[in-house]
Amino acid sequence: MDQGRPGGEGVNSAFNWLFDPDHWSGPTGFPARILEHLGYTGLSVLIAALIAVPVGAVIGHTGRGTFLVAGLSNGLRALPELGLLTLLVLLTYVGLLPVVVSLVVLALPPVLAGTYAGVRNVDRSVVDAARGMGMRGPSVLWRVELPNALPLIVGGIRSATLQVIATATIAAYVSLGGLGRFVIDGNNAGPGSPDGYPQMAAGAVAVAALALTVEGVLALAQRLVVSPGLRATNLVGKNT
Amino acid sequence: MIEFQAVTKRYPDGTVAVDSLDLTVEDGRITVFVGPSGCGKTTSLRMINRMIDPTSGTILLNGKDIRESDPPLLRRGIGYVIQHAGLFPHRTVLDNVATVPLLSGVDKRTARSRAAELMELVGLPSTMAKRYPAQLSGGQQQRVGVARALAADPPVLLMDEPFSAVDPIVRDDLQQQLLRLQSELDKTIVFVTHDIDEAIKLGDRVAVFRVGGRLAQYDSPSALLAKPADDFVSSFVGRDRGYRALGFLTATGIPVGEVATVRAGDAPERAREALVDGWAVVVDEQNRPLGWVSADLLSTMDKSVDTEALVSGGSLFEVDSSAGGTAGSLRNALDAALSSPAAVGIAVDGTGAVVGGVTADTVLSALADARSSGEVPG
Ligand SMILES: Nc1ncnc2c1ncn2[C@@H]1O[C@H](COP(=O)(O)OP(=O)(O)OP(=O)(O)O)[C@@H](O)[C@H]1O
Ligand SMILES: [Mg+2]
């Protein structure tokens, strides 16, 4: 019963489970599960970005189809991921596809909204100058609007990634891998079992730790891809 | 040459921004569009590079209808400078300036070395090349904007209130620089402003627009000041137009009288003997003016004329001289006289050395002469 309560021995047993060397090797160990988890996440976010960045960019650039951004974002956000997954599994089959589709649906709105807002918010006088100097539409988008929109695009991708990492645990509901395995298996093992609550909690902690790590890596990546000129506040005074 | 032929622009909401405009912009000159807010200056300007297309009428650039040109290609041959510069925040200053050459297919190295030349031309130190626009002051950003517009060496330059967002001192600097650049480059410049002083200072020709997009008068600045076409123009040109018109009359040949001078460091007793009407100009070794000294002031100095304690002088009036100075205008001469504590304007030569003094009376009689000889219209 003690194990059902957070704190005290419960937390200790969770950490003991987490750091048990036996749980860090083989196809059911943490490294393998983390890789699976990252795989689902990476694949879903990538697909979402490949769809949402071009769509958001074109809508932001042309100003046409703006209603799509609001409508799509809200509509997709309203869908419960687990419900969607169950539905997809019932309609299709058990496997990677329904999982990835559910996660892509989750990742689309923040990337779409970030890209659209990023492109739309580029200073109008900058866009005007670009056109006035003789850039054609695609050049304006590619060389001026997108580079200036990068902070918001990357921001959208970061928040999508965080949500997908947290939600990718649902893969385990349909017998796939990932860190959700520990949560589901722990739950199935029942209270009192040494592989019960401690395993569940260890899985949850691992998901949180993974999310924080990935967030850190993406924050670094953002610094690398975004022009220093857009971090103006850090720059003023430097070099002067 | 840019020709507007019966050009009208009506926006979709029915606003007539430009109404049947006929106007010819001459090559190698600065033509200024001036007028109150909303009178269609920007619209007229942007029709030249097809950022806006007219509802009716024709615009010819060097005799060719601009509708026959592909807008991006047309624009690469026309420099464009806007109010807040519109620099690309994500690119360095150097890459901003290199934009149009790169667009036109020049290789990166050549474009960048061209950009570096342009930075020098507009007076930006090369240490700024690697900075980003956010690291520059407003005035520096405008310089970059001008350099960027000139980078591909376009024959035509369009400028939409480029200097209106900077403080008066920086603005004056930028205006002087534009005039200097223009004397070297001979571009065809169309310059939009709502500031009549700027228009008069920069323009070879000034087009005054009235609200509703109609051209009220198109003339040289001096003619505009001397003979405003109607009440609208005369009220727009402003109250001081008589005084400002003096700026267009050269003071060459007006009599420059003697002026009392004493050398810094002279003994006060000797200086006292030199005073005329109680005042004398104190000069340095090169005879350049340092300020004025009066009888009262001298009585406070015991050993020598103290340069720290002088009354500062008024503006200086430069007279044409063999040393290469430019002839000042009657306005300069009058201002020198009015701003001097001794009521005598200091006249200097090209080297800055004092050559004499002018009084307001001399200037006014020179003006009367100019009037009677018909030099001043009106
Ligand atoms: N896109 C537009 N749609 C409708 N009306 C417009 C549009 N752009 C400008 N106008 C109107 O056309 C008129 C002329 O505008 P324009 O921008 O050419 O004026 P301006 O002389 O440059 O004024 P300012 O000195 O304030 O810049 C104004 O009444 C303005 O409201
Ligand atoms: Mg305007």
From TrEMBL, chain A:
Domain of life assignment = Bacteria
Q: Does the keyword Lipid metabolism apply?
A: no
| GO CC term, one of those recorded | plasma membrane
The main location class comes to: membrane
Q: Where in the cell is it found?
A: Cell membrane; Membrane
Residue ranges occupied by any ABC transmembrane type-1 domain in the UniProt entry: 34-218
Residue intervals passing through the bilayer:
38-61, 82-108, 200-221
Write the record's keywords in alphabetical order, separated by commas: Membrane, Transmembrane, Transmembrane helix, Transport
Q: How does it sit in the membrane?
A: Multi-pass membrane protein
Alphabetical GO biological process terms:
glycine betaine transport; transmembrane transport
UniProt cross-references to InterPro entries, sorted A to Z: ABC_transp_perm/SBD (IPR051204), MetI-like (IPR000515), MetI-like_sf (IPR035906)
The entry assigns this protein to a family as follows: Belongs to the binding-protein-dependent transport system permease family.
Protein name (record): ABC transporter permease
Protein species of origin: Actinophytocola xinjiangensis
The lineage is: Bacteria, Bacillati, Actinomycetota, Actinomycetes, Pseudonocardiales
TrEMBL record, chain B:
Q: What class of enzyme is it?
A: translocase
Q: Which PROSITE patterns match?
A: ABC_TRANSPORTER_1, ABC_TRANSPORTER_2
Q: Which InterPro entries match?
A: AAA+_ATPase, ABC_transporter-like_ATP-bd, ABC_transporter-like_CS, P-loop_NTPase
Q: Name one GO molecular function term.
A: ATP binding
Give the enzyme's EC designation.
7.6.2.9
Q: Which family is this sequence assigned to?
A: Belongs to the ABC transporter superfamily.
Give the protein name, as stated in the record: ABC-type quaternary amine transporter
Please name the source species: Actinophytocola xinjiangensis
Its taxonomic path starts at: Bacteria, Bacillati, Actinomycetota, Actinomycetes, Pseudonocardiales
